[in-house]
């Protein structure tokens, strides 16, 4: 997990709010998001953590960002809490992913998305 976060540090933190499909405060405390801009790769990095034993749907609004067309990189690390030697699964997503209203976060997971930004 340290490598997954270390490779996706970004250069600027962007304050963000996220809507989660749960009203239970105990559940909400176990879901976390952070958004960063990486000026070196000109990308937006969204990190999502789910420390619940069930999948969670989250609504993420990226309409305030000037995203470029291109491949979205997704890396997910998930498994039981006591699991050892778990490796991330890397996926390449297409622009249609942005049309989804809900993102599904696997149980006990860390997911990192990299979205290309338009040139400034």
From TrEMBL:
It comes from the Bacteria. InterPro entries: Glyco_hydro_b. This is Alpha-L-arabinofuranosidase C-terminal domain-containing protein.
């Amino acid at each position: 997990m340290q490598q997954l976060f270390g490779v996706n540090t970004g250069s600027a933190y962007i304050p963000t709010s996220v809507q989660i499909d749960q009203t239970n405060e105990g559940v909400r405390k176990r879901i976390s998001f952070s958004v960063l801009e990486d000026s070196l790769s000109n990308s937006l990095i969204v990190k999502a953590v789910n420390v619940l034993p069930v999948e969670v749907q989250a609504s993420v609004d990226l309409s305030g960002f000037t995203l470029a067309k291109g491949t979205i990189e997704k890396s997910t690390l998930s498994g039981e809490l006591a699991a050892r030697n778990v490796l991330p699964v890397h996926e390449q997503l297409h622009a249609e992913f942005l049309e989804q209203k809900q993102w599904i976060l696997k149980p006990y997971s860390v997911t990192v998305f990299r979205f290309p930004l338009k040139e400034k």
